[in-house]
UniProtKB/TrEMBL annotation, chains A, B, C:
Compartmental location: Endomembrane system
InterPro entries in UniProt: CaH_exchang, CAX-like, NaCa_Exmemb, NCX_ion-bd_dom_sf
Domain of life: Bacteria
Disulfide bond listed as a keyword: no
Function according to Swiss-Prot or TrEMBL: Ca(+)/H(+) antiporter that extrudes calcium in exchange for external protons.
TM region positions: 6-36, 90-108, 129-147, 159-180, 201-219, 239-261, 273-295, 301-318, 330-348
Short name of one Pfam family: Na_Ca_ex
Protein name: Ca(2+)/H(+) antiporter
Main location: membrane
Source organism phylogeny: Bacteria, Bacillati, Bacillota, Clostridia, Eubacteriales
Domain annotation Sodium/calcium exchanger membrane region: ranges: 26-180, 205-345
Gene responsible for this protein: cax
Record key words, sorted: Antiport, Calcium, Calcium transport, Ion transport, Membrane, Transmembrane, Transmembrane helix, Transport
Family: Belongs to the Ca(2+):cation antiporter (CaCA) (TC 2.A.19) family.
Amino acid sequence: MKVLRYMLIFIPISFICKFLNVSPSIMFVLAALSIVPLAGLMGEGTEEISFYSGPKIGGFLNATFGNATELIISFFALKEGLFEVVKSSIAGSVIGNVLLVLGASMLFGGLKHKSQSFNKKVVEVSSSMLLFAVVGLCIPALFTHTVDPELLNTRYEGLSIFVAVVMILIYILSLVFSFFTHKHIYASANEEENHGTAKWSLSKAIGVLIISTVFIAIESEFLVGGIESLTESLGLSEFFVGIILIPIIGNAAEHSTAIIMAMKNKMDVAIEIAIGSSLQIILFVAPVLIFLSLLFTPMSIVFNEFELIALIVAVLIANRVSSDGESNWLEGVQLLAVYLIIAASFFIL
Amino acid sequence: MKVLRYMLIFIPISFICKFLNVSPSIMFVLAALSIVPLAGLMGEGTEEISFYSGPKIGGFLNATFGNATELIISFFALKEGLFEVVKSSIAGSVIGNVLLVLGASMLFGGLKHKSQSFNKKVVEVSSSMLLFAVVGLCIPALFTHTVDPELLNTRYEGLSIFVAVVMILIYILSLVFSFFTHKHIYASANEEENHGTAKWSLSKAIGVLIISTVFIAIESEFLVGGIESLTESLGLSEFFVGIILIPIIGNAAEHSTAIIMAMKNKMDVAIEIAIGSSLQIILFVAPVLIFLSLLFTPMSIVFNEFELIALIVAVLIANRVSSDGESNWLEGVQLLAVYLIIAASFFIL
Amino acid sequence: MKVLRYMLIFIPISFICKFLNVSPSIMFVLAALSIVPLAGLMGEGTEEISFYSGPKIGGFLNATFGNATELIISFFALKEGLFEVVKSSIAGSVIGNVLLVLGASMLFGGLKHKSQSFNKKVVEVSSSMLLFAVVGLCIPALFTHTVDPELLNTRYEGLSIFVAVVMILIYILSLVFSFFTHKHIYASANEEENHGTAKWSLSKAIGVLIISTVFIAIESEFLVGGIESLTESLGLSEFFVGIILIPIIGNAAEHSTAIIMAMKNKMDVAIEIAIGSSLQIILFVAPVLIFLSLLFTPMSIVFNEFELIALIVAVLIANRVSSDGESNWLEGVQLLAVYLIIAASFFIL
C-alpha cells in the first residue's frame, strides 16, 4: 500500500499538463494515475476516523465512503451526460469486484496457502443480498428489453426512481441489520480487523479525507474530460472505458487490500471487500446517481444487454463460490478467465 | 383466520349487486372479497376430511385441493378465452408464493424470532423440484421466443400437450415419492401438523367442501366477467390482473396460514406451503388447464418474456433461500422488494 | 459392457453396405451401431494402458482420450463444413451427460438403493468448474446475439480463438491441479477405481487403442456422410442430429459405465463421469475443434440461442444437484424429464 504514495507525484504533473493544454487522452491517463493513490488515502483517512468514532459510526463511514471515488467520477460523467459510461461503470464495478478482485485474491492467496477456508455463513448472507440486489436492479432492464421501447419511454424514469428508492431503503435496513439487530453474526470478523490503534490524530484523518476528496473531484473532471478523446484515438467503445477502465481506476487501492488480505490467509476479509463493495455499488452508489441525475437530465437505470449478462454472470459466480466455504488457486484462475473473456468481448465491440 | 369468516358477508352482497346489475368492475372487487374467505373454508374442509381419511389420502387431498380456487378461477378465464390472464396467473402464483408469501413469512417471523432455522434437507428437495419443474415448463417458451413464430405455430400445441403429460406424470411420481418410497423424509414435518383432532364431523367437512366449491365457482364467474371492465377503467394490463391480483385473491387464505406459521417459529411449514404450492401450480394446475383448454380452444404453454423472467427469478431466489437453512427479517424484506419491483414493472406495462 | 462386443459385427456389415452403395441414411445407422462398441473398446484400451503407466499419466490419458470418439466424429463434420452439427454436438454432449446420463444413473441407482450419497466436496469442485467453463464458452455467443451481426463479423474468429486459448490453458491448469497441487482431494475416489489389475498386456492395450481409433475414424466418415441424407429423409433438423443423436452415439459406452457404477452404489464415480466428461468437452474438445477448423474454414464458437438455453439449463441443474450431496430416483426422473422436453423441442424445429 505504501508504494501507492509515490504515485501522488502524478497530481502535480497532471496540473502542469492541464496548464500546458496537453491532449485530453494524456490527461485521462494522468488523472487515472493520480486517482489510484488518492482513493487509497481516502480509504486510510476513513479507517483512521473510525478508530475515534467507535465501530458503529466507523462501520457506517467505511460502508458509505468505500465507493466515494466511483461516486465522484460518475458524478462528473453524469454532468457531461455520459449515461452509458455511468451505467457501464456500475456494472463494471460489480464484475470487477466479483471476478477480478476475488479471482486475484483466490489465485495469490491459493498459491501461498494450498486451500483457504472462509466463514460460509457471513459470505452467504452477503452473496444472497447480492443476488437479490442485482435481480432487483436488473428487472427494469429485463422488462424494457422485451417490450417495444416507444411504448414505455415516458414511464422509464418513474420506474428507475422507484427502484432507486427501494434500493436505498434496503441499504439503510442492511445497516440496521449489521450494526443493530444482527451484529453478532459479524462480531468475530470485525474484531480481527479492529485490534489496531489509530496512527493519525483525528484532525489529521479528517484533513486527509477532505483534501483527498477535493483532489479526486478535480482529477475526475480531467478523467471524464478525456474519455471522448481516448475512445476516438484508441478506437475503444465507451462501454469498454466504463466497464473495464473506470472501475479499475476507482477501486485499485481497495483491490490491492483484498489481495494482501488473501495472501495473509484472511480470505473472509478479502471476500467481504469484494462482495460488500459490489453491494454498496448497487444499493447505494447506483440509487444516489439516479437521484443526482434529476439535477441534470434524468438517467434511467436500464442496463444494456451486455451489462445485464455481465452482472448476472457475476452474481451467479459469487453465489457459487460462496457456497462451498473454500477456495483454491484454480478457482481464482477461472474467475480471472471469465473476467478476461468478458473484457475481450467488450474490447471488440 | 377466524376474521376471514366475517368476509363471507360479501357473498350475499355480490349476489344482490349482480341482481342490481352493478358495473362489472365492482363485481370483480366483490367477487374477490368473497373468494378469500371461501378459499379459506375450502382449505379447512380439506384439512378436516384428512383427519378421517388418514395421512396418505389426506396428504393427497391437501396437495390436490390446495390450489382448487386458482384452478376454478382459471377455468372460467379459459372458457372466456382469456389465455393471457390464465398463463400470467400461473406465473403469478409461483412468484406470489416464493416472493410475497415467503418474504412476508420471513419478515414477520424474523421480527419475532431473531433468526429462524428450518430443515434444510426437506426444503432442498422441494426447491430442487421447483427448479426442474420451472425449467421444464419454460423450455417451450424459451425455444419459441428465439425462432420465427410463423415457422412453428402448428406444432405449439403438440409440444404443450407433451409438456403437460410429462408434468402430470412427475406430479404423480412425486406423490408416490412422498407418500410411499420416501415418506420418512417428511415424517417429522407431518407429525407436527397432525397432532390435532377433527373439529368437524366428516359429513360437515364434506358439506363445507362442496358448498364452498360451488360458491367459489359462482364468484369466479363474476370475477372473470369483470376483468375486461376493470383493466379498461383503471388502465391496467391483463398481465397485471393475472400476475398480481388473481394469485393474491386465490391464495390469500393460504398466505395468511404461512405467515402465522412463521410467527409461531414453524418456518419449515411456512416454506413448505410456499414452495409446495408453487410446485402444485406447475405440476398439476398448469397441465390440467392445458388439458381443459382442449375442450374450448387449445392453449399453448408459451409464457411471454415477462412471465419467464419472473418465473426464473423466483426459482433462483427460492433455491438460494433454501440453501442456507436459516432466515431473518432482512431476507424477508429483500424478497418483498423484488416482488414490489416486479409488480411495479407489470404495473407500468 | 460385454454385450457391446457383439455389436462389433456392424463394422463388417457397414463395410459391405458401403461397397454395395446403400443409401447414406442406412450408412448413418450402421456407422452409429459400429461406433458404440468401438468407443467402448477405446475406453477399455485407455484404462488398461493406465495400469502400466501409473496413475498420473493414466489419469491424463483417461481425461484426454475420454472424448476421443466425439472429437473424431466432429473432425469429419468440420471437414465437411457442418459447423452447426459440430457446435450443437458440443452442447448436446454437455446436456447428454448432465441430464441423460446423470438422470439415468440417479434413477436406476435410486431404484436399487433408496437414497444415495456422494462426496459433496469433489462434486462441488467439478460442478463449479463446469459453471465457469460454460459461462466462459457462452459469453461470445451471448454478446453476439445482442449486437448487430454485420458490425462484428470480422472479429468473431479472433474472439473464438482467444476463448479457445483460455479454455485449453484452464484445461492444462486443471490437470496440474488434480495431478499435482491438489491430488489429495481426489485420492480416495481414485483409489476405489484403481484396485484392479491389468487384464491385457501393454502391447495388446496399445494395439486395441490404435485399431479402435482407426475404425472409429472410418465409421465417423460414413456417419457424417449420412447426416444430410438422414435429415432430409426423416425431416429432422441438423440441430436435432447434433444435439441428440451424435452425443448418444459417441458416449453410449461411457454412459453405460456411469449407470452401472450408480447401480453399484458408487454414485461419486457416476457423477464424476458425467460432469468430468462435460468439462473435457468444453475445456478440451471445443477448443481443439476451433484450432482444427483453422485448417479448413475457421469456425466461430458462437452457439445459437437453443444451444445456449440447453447449456445454461444443464449447468444450473448440475450445480443444484451437486449441492445437497444426495440423490434419489425422483431426482433422476426429473433430470430425464428436462432432457426429454429439450429433445422434443429440438425435434419440432
